[in-house]
Specification:
Number of helices: 9
Structural class: alpha+beta
InterPro entries: ATP-grasp, ATP_grasp_subdomain_1, D-Ala_lig_Van_CS, D_ala_D_ala, Dala_Dala_lig_C, PreATP-grasp_dom_sf
EC number: 6.3.2.4
Largest sheet: 6 strands, antiparallel
Order of helices and strands: EHEEHEHHEEEHEEEEHEHEEHH
Radius of gyration: 19 Å
Helix content: 25-40%
Cofactor: Mn(2+); Mg(2+)
Oligomer: single chain
CATH class of the largest domain: Alpha Beta
Subcellular location: Cytoplasm
Pathway: Cell wall biogenesis; peptidoglycan biosynthesis
Number of strands: 14
Length: 306
């Protein structure tokens, strides 16, 4: 069996994806796997000879690699792959739609409004500041901004629509940011993130050396359990499978976790929270990869599009 590691792609997260792909390849090769690294932006998928015995490990982030498009392509060809299926991937990538699912399930998430036509006078007069402006369909916090007044809001919305087509103006929740790794049915200890900026944005995730990740936060056990329970509910409400990372804000004043988003293909670089949380939970990197692959095979064997 060959393992094809898909990475790169054409999304705004290409560079991170290339690093994830290189790390996955290294781990799998060290474990004795026959690995083929594929930059999907440079290699037509139709040119690949992938049999029903092979496996595709998705190390893509954002764009068609994470929004259900590639997952549907692989499903229709009977190819096993890692992570969630087409429907769950699409729901998770569309932050505005995932919010509606969570709200219907009684899962707390910041309120938001979507704009597709840029600034509309009077449309956001009821917004309280600070507020969060973000694209509805980008990962890695690409394009995320926190604004403090109407002028900043107007600029962020107008620029966001030009750059991404659809933006979401979201309620700002004052609290501590956590991210929760999920592997199969295991929900790992929430990781407390202390970013140098108010937002855990792309810079804080991949460029800053000041961002702190606290893998055993000294907070009340009840709070940690509430965060874990909320992460699992958000994950299952979207019918995700295999593995993911869930981002949450815990409002200390209200003692309540708010779900921000589910990342169905979290980063796999040496700095990535998912791998580090798994290692601290007692899993070797090779074991994590083998489990992700096993979950992918099991999920595809059910012929489910979730």
């Amino acid at each position: 069996m060959k393992v094809f590691v898909f990475c790169g792609g054409m999304s705004s997260e290409r560079e991170v994806s290339l690093k994830s792909g290189a790390m996955v390849r290294l781990i799998l090769e060290n474990a004795g796997r026959d690995v083929v690294l594929v930059d999907t932006a440079a290699t037509p998928l139709e040119s690949l000879v992938i049999t029903g015995e092979d496996f595709v490990f998705l190390a893509l982030h954002g764009g068609d690699g994470e929004n259900g498009t590639l997952q549907n392509y692989l499903e229709l060809r009977g190819i096993c792959y890692s992570g969630s299926g087409p429907l769950a991937s699409a729901l998770a990538m569309r932050k505005d739609i995932s919010k509606k699912v969570w709200q219907a399930e009684g899962i707390v998430t910041p309120s938001a409004r979507v704009l597709t036509d840029g600034w509309v006078d009077g449309a956001l007069d009821t917004i309280r500041f600070p507020a969060v402006v973000k694209p509805t369909s980008e990962g890695c916090s690409v394009g995320l901004r926190i604004v403090d007044n109407k002028a900043e809001l107007r600029h962020a919305v107008s620029a966001g629509v030009v750059d991404f087509g659809r933006v979401m103006v979201e309620e700002y929740i004052q609290g501590d940011e956590y991210t929760v790794a999920i592997l199969g049915d295991k929900v790992f200890c929430p990781v407390l993130v202390k970013a140098p900026r108010r937002a855990f944005d792309f810079y804080s995730k991949f460029e800053s050396l000041e961002t702190e990740y606290i893998y055993a936060p000294e907070v009340p056990e009840d709070d940690l359990q509430a965060i874990k329970d909320t992460a699992w509910r958000a994950y299952t409400a979207l019918e995700c499978s295999g593995f993911a990372r869930v981002d949450i804000i815990f409002c200390r004043r209200r003692r309540k976790p708010y779900v921000l988003e589910v990342n169905t293909l979290p980063g796999m670089t040496n700095r990535s929270i998912f791998l580090q949380a798994s290692l601290r939970a007692g899993y070797s990197a090779a074991r994590v990869m083998e489990l992700i692959m096993a979950y992918g095979v099991a999920q595809r064997s059910t012929n489910s599009l979730n």
